[in-house]
Amino acid sequence: MPKADILVDKCTGCRLCEGVCSARLVGNFDSARSAVYVESLLPENIVIRPFMCVHCEEHPCVDSCPVAAIEKSEELDVYVVNKSLCTGCGACVQACPYRGIRLDPVSQLAIKCDFCKGQPRCVDVCPFKVIQIIG
Amino acid sequence: MVYGYVGKILRADLTSGRISTEPTNMNWAKMFLGGKGLGAKYLFEESKPKTDAFAPENILIFMTGPLTGTIAPCTPKHVVITKSPLTGTFLDSYAGGYFGAELKFAGFDAIILKGRAKQPVYLYVKDGQAQIKSAENLWGKDTHETEKLVKEELGDKEVKVASIGPAGENLVKYSCITNDFYRQSGRGGAGAVMGSKNLKALAVRGTQGVSVPNIDEFVELSKEIVKKDVVGNPDNEWVIVDGSPAIVRMSQEAGMLPTKNFQSGTFEDVDKIDAKAIKEVLVRRRSCYSCPMACGNITQIKEGPFAGTLLEGPDYETLALSGSNCLISDLGAIAKFNLLCDKLGIDTITAGNAIAFAMECYEKGIITKEDTGGLELSFGNTDAYIEMPRLIAFRKAIGNILAEGVRVASQRIGHGSQSFAVHAKGLEYPAYDPRGSFGMALAFATSDRGACHLRAWPAASDAFGKLNPFTTEGKAQLVIDDQNKYAAKWSLIVCDFYAIGYGNIARLFSAATGWNVSEDDMKLIGERIWNLVRLYNLREGLTRKDDTVPERISKDPMLDGKAKGRTVTLEDFGKMLDEYYQLRGWDKDGRPTKEKMAQLNLTMS
Fold this sequence. Notes:
The complex is a heterodimer.
Chain A: E1 3-6, H1 16-26, E2 37-41, E3 47-51, H2 60-64, E4 70-73, E5 78-81, H3 91-95, E6 102-103, E7 110-111, H4 121-125, E8 131-134
Antiparallel strand pairs in A: 1-8, 2-3, 4-5, 6-7
Chain B: E1 8-13, E2 18-23, H1 26-32, H2 35-46, E3 60-63, E4 78-83, E5 90-95, H3 99-105, E6 110-114, E7 121-126, E8 129-134, H4 143-154, E9 160-163, H5 166-169, E10 177-179, E11 183-185, H6 190-196, E12 199-205, H7 215-230, H8 237-241, H9 246-254, H10 275-280, E13 282-286, E14 296-300, E15 310-312, H11 316-321, H12 331-344, H13 348-363, H14 369-372, H15 382-385, H16 388-393, H17 398-402, H18 406-413, E16 423-424, E17 427-428, H19 438-446, H20 475-492, H21 502-513, H22 519-539, H23 551-554, H24 570-584, H25 594-599
Parallel strand pairs in B: 1-6, 7-12
Antiparallel strand pairs in B: 1-2, 3-4, 3-6, 4-5, 7-8, 9-10, 9-12, 10-11, 13-14, 14-15, 16-17
Helix pairs in contact in B: 1-2, 2-20, 2-22, 7-21, 19-20, 20-22, 20-24, 21-22
């Protein structure tokens, strides 16, 4: 199963990843509704880094979901959110140690990366090669 | 369906507390785009002539452009538009960061403020709604504290904040507005206009997004432009490698690095403040929204009395005007000064000029320790220099006079000091001495908001290019071409550091809005915007005599460097200005002719 590796020190905070991700997920440029999101904490401590599903082996999000809405897609070889089952309870958000899954503020349903069904757009658009796919 | 724009404007009258929303005027958007142009149109139509900048009636506009919030490269900026308290002219002051994109996501193309709150307030905007909230507990706080406190109070660390510091509250005429901690609407005193309205901050947040007609095509177009014209364009390489500090060396070699209040064009200690020096203290690079170049340098001073100082910057203008122009070579001191100015809310370009001006007054005996509050305010004295931002922000001792900018300060101080007050229309010079690039003399003199390097930059073609820098010939057309193109660029809004041409301006605008706009259309729109702003300034009472060069440049020969011995004489300058007016289709007094206004569809009813 492929995984994401995030080279946090290389991120400059341009947030182009959010733009292309939201373009695919919701059809417009809407950073708040992207599956990948950049946090930039300033001014005394400099933290600039993206958060997204890294597609970990342990998948606590899957285990935490009370309605089994996060399913393995055999076709894509990653876990995806089944929107027709998700109730937006947020248990997965609490469970994920990577802060890789969050609730869409409009639909109130869980959103997570599915590697764009094979060709991750954030990887392609990132000018600094912060997001890498392994495996 | 509106594309590119989000189609709504938020209005807040701080006197009555009334908040309203209305559709963005799309007829105006077609004629004036967004940003500078659309903001200028609203300011022109909604202001009475000769409104005082600090009057409640002076409107204050936070405007975005049709590309803001999209992934079009280098389009993070919003612009603050108002009448300037420093110059009495039109003012457009841009800032990067994330605030502009978030304002669009919150559902508005612009916020238009007027009136004056009885008590300090801030405006909170979220997803199409707005409320005026008390800022009693924020008043007196610096911009960093304010931003942190607003985020805390709203319980949202992702809210984007633009705020003023004590300088804006104290109506320092060149107070800036800071957003995202390290980004400023720097020039011309928009922060003081906020202060005059008792408006401490704006906080914006939203989830509404920006739509374009065909999002997949738009993404592909943006990626193609990044590849071929931004990251792949050698003209932008210095931005990617060093950011603005690259210009320190370029200016030094061209003999136009402001040094000792523009007495000299080269700085002995240039190696202490150049891009290489910045690299040694670099922590990491930082981008604004949608920018693949990341020109921002987050730095931390490692040793000396200012060890530990951490900030984004200093940028070229600060290194030059707050560095070499004050004969300060300690990068730590410049960084600390920069941080103080950011937090107190002062423009470092004007502050550097004002302090260098005061240092020259002090060395000439025009002012003494009695005026400076005991400070030995000589060139290069770091101890005195580092005290100055506070004196200015709180209007203490000489700071109270310097808070007015060098034009008014020199009038009050007198004793011949006007001959070395370096400004155009009251806005202090940026860091390109025109004696090393004669075209810059015209660029500064005819710039709409006073001396600005971002309205035309002929130095790229003469001092840093192939043309002869020491002649006025051919420069008028160069300045006009830049001004028109930049007017369009500042209306989309595309960052100055991406050297975009009309072709991609037109392609991106058309792809974002779904309107079919050609390169030629864009050229006409750029010229129209420049002329509209000229009409505003004329209405405010400006005349040909305001389009001029200061005595330091016209009379004092440059002391050393490549431009040694040069002046831009008033005679040469006058000829260049005549040519400029003529090529613009303006009369001898610099007024657009009826024919020109008709050609640009600017004839006012």
